[in-house]
TrEMBL record:
Gene3D superfamilies noted in UniProt: P-loop containing nucleotide triphosphate hydrolases
Helicase ATP-binding domain: residues covered: 55-245
Pfam families linked to this entry: DEAD, Helicase_C
Designated name of the protein: RNA helicase
Organism: Blyttiomyces helicus
Residue span, DEAD-box RNA helicase Q domain: 24-52
Motif (Q motif): 24-52
Family membership noted in the UniProt record: Belongs to the DEAD box helicase family.
InterPro entries: DEAD/DEAH_box_helicase_dom (IPR011545), Helicase_ATP-bd (IPR014001), Helicase_C-like (IPR001650), P-loop_NTPase (IPR027417), RNA-helicase_DEAD-box_CS (IPR000629), RNA_helicase_DEAD_Q_motif (IPR014014)
CDD domains in alphabetical order: SF2_C_DEAD
């Protein structure tokens, strides 16, 4: 669960004119009774720092750019104000031209959440369904790899909130299956990763080149773990009267993560991994490797030793990937082996231990991997296998360790 005690120490900086006051509990806002009930059903006790600020800002009709690490409860930070807006305004006022759109089989969402990966899109969609439970608001999801027939059937049933990856959404718009003319609430989630993966032209086309309304009746929120110049430009182009909220150590590893760097030759890695797995306490363990082949090989090796293991990489079908994440999340198979490509898309709480079996190619990927543990104020551990092959990263790695107040081994 969430360690709220640790949240008291997290610094929050708010920039912009006349920000509303932060909330200390969900009851501080005049939320719709059905939304309050669903928040209670989801067992949300008190808001996280990003929720304390995001919710009142977006309810106050302001645009928002929020810099926070994944795993800070940011999905609820935008879904709650989005749901509140829709429930408050009502179905009749928002669902305009309903008969015409149905006749032409065009889905016209009220809320749009753009996500960089299918895994994240699925996670957001699951959350949206919980917040929309027993209301008229109907969430839908669209991403590459999803069966087209199945997706079209879901869109026909209604898509008041659409969660989509940029490529698939652009494709649906091109086929006139989706119109954005009704959009009242836009969220660009994990904007930095959207840029990393080359989606900026698609996102700009969706926001600037479509029939989406550009006036002040549209709320826009952008969430990003880092805030480099390209993100600032995008924010300037997409957002109106906005506030900037920065939560905690942006682009850095949470201080609650204990980082261990072990010098391990390539030939000794398997034995070292076994030593760790046999000794550690039970909990979710995420092991990163550098290739699909290494992922499959290590999975077979641990499976034959009767470890409860699963694995995930880009060569797997969408159904296989979802099954693996579900088995890991539920602790049916509490050990997961992953490659960077897929690992970056996962938001799984309560990961106890991240193991870098293969050191990543960049220090940014190291930071991102380690950030899978120590989420929402909890403690976590990371172990990285290092040898001469990784010497190029030695200096950067030492700097990250010092910045995180960790011991730097002599071999670095």
């Amino acid at each position: 669960g969430i360690n709220f005690g640790a949240y008291a120490d997290i610094q929050v900086i708010v920039k912009g004119e006349e920000p509303p006051e932060a909330i200390n509990s969900f009851s501080d806002t005049q939320l719709h009774e059905k939304l309050i009930r669903n928040i209670a059903l989801m067992n949300y006790k008190e808001p996280t720092p990003i929720q304390r600020w995001s919710i009142p800002i977006l309810l106050d009709q302001r645009d928002l750019i929020a810099c926070a690490q994944t795993g800070n409860g940011k999905t609820a930070a935008y879904l709650i104000p989005m749901m509140q807006m829709f429930l408050q305004k009502g179905k009749t006022a928002l669902r305009t031209d309903e008969e015409d759109l149905k006749r032409r089989r065009i889905a016209a969402p009220l809320g749009l959440i753009i996500s960089p990966t299918r895994e994240l899109a699925c996670q957001i969609f699951d959350e949206a369904r919980k917040f929309a439970y027993m209301t008229w608001v109907r969430p839908a999801v669209a991403y590459g790899g999803l069966d087209t027939k199945c997706m079209n059937a879901e869109l026909d049933k209604g898509a008041d909130i659409l969660v989509a990856t940029p490529g698939r959404l652009k494709d649906l718009m091109g086929k006139n299956r989706v119109s954005l003319r009704r959009i009242r609430f836009l969220v660009v989630d994990e904007a930095d990763r959207m840029l990393d993966q080359g989606f900026e032209p698609d996102v700009r086309y969706i926001v600037e080149g479509s029939d989406m309304r550009k006036d002040e009746s549209r709320r826009t929120a952008m969430y990003s773990a880092t805030f480099p110049p390209p993100i600032r430009r995008m924010a300037r182009d997409f957002l109106g009267d906005c506030l900037l909220v920065t939560v905690g150590r942006v682009g850095k590893i949470p201080l609650g993560v204990h980082q261990r760097i072990e010098f391990v030759e390539e030939a000794d890695k398997k034995q070292k991994l076994l030593d760790i797995l046999y000794e550690q306490e039970a909990g979710l363990t995420l092991i990163f490797v550098e290739s699909k082949r290494a992922c499959d090989t290590l999975d077979d090796y641990l499976y034959n030793l009767e470890f409860p293991v699963t694995s995930i990489h880009s060569g797997r079908s969408q159904a296989e990937r979802e099954d693996a994440i579900c088995a890991f999340r539920s602790q049916k198979t509490p050990i997961m082996i992953a490659t960077d490509v897929v690992g970056r898309g996962m938001d799984i709480p309560n990961v106890l231990h991240v193991i870098n079996y293969d050191m990543p190619k960049t220090i940014e990927d190291y930071v991102h991997r380690i950030g899978r543990t120590g989420r929402v104020g909890n403690k976590g551990t990371s172990t990285t296998f290092y040898n001469e092959r990784n010497a190029d990263l030695a200096r950067d790695l030492a700097m990250v360790l010092m910045d995180s107040q960790q011991a730097v081994p002599e071999f670095l």
